[in-house]
Amino acid sequence: MNEYTDKIQEIASRWQNKRGSLIMILHDLQEEFGYIERKAALEVARITRIPLAKIYEVVTFYHYFKLSPPAKYVISVCKGTACYLKGACRVAGEIKKILGVEEGAPTPDGLFMLRTVRCLGCCGLAPVVDINGRIFSRVDVKNIRDIIAEYRRKR
Amino acid sequence: MNIDYVKVSLSSCGIAAGADKVYACWEDMLRRYSLKVELKKTGCLGFCYAEPLIEVKGKGLGPVFYGKVMPQDVEEIVGRHLLKGEIVERLLYRLRFDNLFHNDEVWLDKVIFVKDTSGSIKAKEKLAGILKESGYDDWQVIEPADMGIYDKGIVVDIPQKDIVYVCLDDNDLEEIPSLLVSPSPERRFPVFSPHQKRIVLRHCGVINPESIDDYLNAGGYKALEKALSMNREDIIKELAEAGLRGRGGGGFITARKWEIASQTEANQRYIVCNADEGDPGAYMDRSILEGDPHSVIEGMLVAGLAVGADKGFFYIRAEYPLAIERVRKAIEEAYRCGYLGKNIRGSGFSFDIEVRLGAGAFVCGEETALIASLEGGRGLPRPRPPYPSIKGLWGKPTVINNVETLANVAAIIDRGGRWFASFGTSDSRGTKVFALTGKVRNSGLIEVEMGISLEEIIFDIGGGTLSGRRVKAVQTGGPSGGVIPAEKLKIKVDYQSLKDFGSIIGSGGMIVMDEDDCMVDIAKFYLGFCIDESCGKCAPCRIGGWQLYHILEKITQGRGREEDIDKMIRIAYAMQKASLCGLGQTAPNPVISTLKYFREEYQEHILNKRCPSLRCNDLVTYVIKEEKCRRCGVCQKTCPAEAIAGDKERGFYIEADKCVKCGRCIEVCKFKAIERR
């Protein structure tokens, strides 16, 4: 537990003297722990004296911040305009079928989670899918199966 | 063979296409063959369709570009090009652009490129034969995989003479030998000159974005040195002469923004680089930050100098990890070399830059919302005036410029405002970067002079549609923009012309749509985006957007009513007039412009319950065509909804009320007997 609060203390002190840095603290927290846990938010409130309500106001406003732990592999299907036109919805539908879960819910083994994002900026290679920061280009309903299978083998 | 360098383009899109593996393979090969060749990482040249892209420059030969290079191709390039000086035709891409800052193209070798871009005439054999007969057999005839010019007959490209002939026919080839001897070849045939002119992207794909030395060698920070010797008013005057307008979408005159901020009394001023590129389907800013971060930093420094600010912020989308990494590295290096920090280059001018990240809120691209986010809160916009140039970050005068705008600044100071103003049209000076995507053959990042026509962009640069189907419309400006129908593609691309036709230049997204795309569906897509991204502060945007979306949804599901069109126009008008910020005011634009040009498509959905593009699933029926069906029964076994009735004896048919329109049957039918209607 101490290690945990130390880490949060360390993150908060990185931004101590910088004005308006709450969002950056939250970014660092999410980078470290994968999501913004309630006890982490409480700790940040205690250290920075930013009211907890304000922290939650910010966390819930921005799509990027997560309040629950993500799966091991987060599959983000890009639904920017170029990807949308080139069949991103079909790819997302196929992933749902493969994983057997809806968007935003982790698979029972905690391995995968599907979400959609608005534009990863790789429109020239649409449609694209991002899995934990690695971008796969020109994805279709056929090759997505192999991509997921490969991650499943890796576990 | 003397090789100057090999460049591998390593930006997000290149890496997505596998460029990192190709780079590793090059390292390996150069080691294995013990070749002392400089291997360079660069940013993106913008030719995304050709990624992974390699550039090989030998003495007097090139640069030569190889596209869609896979790791297994590297050894062939090493063996043939690096060791023997032969060009590998099957991977060769001729890229067409005019970089106004770098041009190290030198062709000493007698090389001639030829390709029949519209038919299948074996132009290469023919030309080689002609050259041989006329005694020019020392010329090497090469047929590239991609000529960079499309549907223009036979194209003959003579790099040594710096001329490209287009629209030639079989007989014209006979005259080529006579053109090889003349010191300045005749313009006997139509000649092609590149449509792309590069100012903003001058260093992208040319230098290593992670090396400040590379930037300095390319003339980087020269503009800053020059600006340091100028007084504040003169810097702004130079920019005013250039006529640079904001490239983020607003199109506000940059010099004016700077002037207002510099004239507002304050003890502190700020410069903010808006890199919260949220327009879905666009990535100009990402490419600039990944390919040439120092030019943006230099632009911010010049802005700081002109305005009297000593602090700058980058506000970058969190979804762009590579851009963030490269900007951070560039800032670090600039500090190390004394281009940032206290007393820069001994001038007494100090400037600090900090990186702040967005967190996935489109509205934060709006400048007052961006300020709220930089201050650490929710990204809620506030009414303007006061404008941020007067009262911005923490109440201080703040200049907020978009990435592309700032990337122009150093070029303007370096070459002068008058030089910059010589490009473009009277109200839109310079160039504009666009992300050309969608159904176009060559999707990628392009930079063109303002005033070019949409037609030239889509057909000459983009090569038309990939499918060969007719272009239906072009969408510009993303969720705040509109569509331009195919009949109007002759219009010029500048701030005013696009506005007159109900769209905007916006930040630079340009999405080509073909006949398979439904305009009602597109409008619904953008509205869906806007209701997700509306911050909820003001009612017109929050409620109006929601209502519009649901009417559009009803129409695409076949439940639309005739009066819905008028209702949408009324809601759209209210949103435009009463919303607080740009997001809400422009959110109905996709609906208004699709209604303006494609009203009959809406009516077809509403009155006849039909989607002409077969895009809206609820209005499509699946039918088995009896004449094509071989009664194999595979579709029946595959159908998850058990909607296919019948048997091998009597034939099969689809029961419409059971069909879930998943499309599985079409996928499995080998005889293409199932059709969507």
Describe this protein's structure:
- The complex is a heterodimer of chains A (155) and B (677).
- Chain A is elongated.
- Chain A is α+β, with helices and mostly antiparallel strands and 155 residues long.
- The longest helix of chain A has 13 residues.
- In chain A, helix 1 packs across helix 3.
- Chain A folds into two domains: 60 residues; 82 residues, Glutaredoxin (3-Layer(aba) Sandwich), CATH 3.40.30.
- In chain A, strand 3 and strand 4 form a beta hairpin.
- Chain A is built from seven helices and four strands; from the N terminus they run ααααβααβββα.
- Chain B has 677 residues and is an alpha/beta fold.
- Chain B has six domains: 93 residues, Glutaredoxin, CATH 3.40.30; 76 residues, Glutaredoxin, CATH 3.40.30; 209 residues, Rossmann fold (3-Layer(aba) Sandwich), CATH 3.40.50.11540; 84 residues, Ubiquitin-like (UB roll); 89 residues, NADH-ubiquinone oxidoreductase 51kDa subunit, iron-sulphur binding domain (de novo design (two linked rop proteins)); 56 residues, Alpha-Beta Plaits, CATH 3.30.70.
- Chain B is 36% helix and 17% strand.
- In chain B, strand 3 and strand 4 form a beta hairpin.
- In chain B, helix 8 runs antiparallel to helix 9 and helix 11 crosses helix 14.
- The model of chain B has no long low-confidence stretch (mean pLDDT 93).
